[in-house]
Write a structure and sequence with these properties.
Blueprint lengths: L1 H5 L5 E6 L4 E10 L2 E6 L2 E6 L3 E6 L16
Antiparallel strand pairs: 1-2, 1-5, 2-3, 3-4
């Protein structure tokens, strides 16, 4: 999975993790078993071994992104 994600650097993807958590964003890098993603100004770090599904995000589809603390 880490090698596959490394080929996705610079692309927008949707990621679903075990426990039904999902995020969407641009893949920045994959390092030491951690996926680094960015959505707008937020950066997210995801354990690669927890990822269940990855697909390229469609431009016309609404995406679940990161929730800002200011919106809670």
């Amino acid at each position: 999975m880490q090698e596959f994600l490394s080929r996705m650097i610079g692309r927008r993807v949707d990621v679903v993790c075990s426990g039904a958590a999902s995020v969407s964003g641009e893949v920045l890098k994959v390092e030491s078993g951690v996926l680094h993603m960015k959505d707008d100004d937020h950066i997210c770090y995801i354990a690669v071994d927890k990822i269940v599904v990855v697909w390229e995000a469609r431009d016309d589809a609404p995406r679940a992104g990161f929730v800002s603390a200011a919106l809670k």
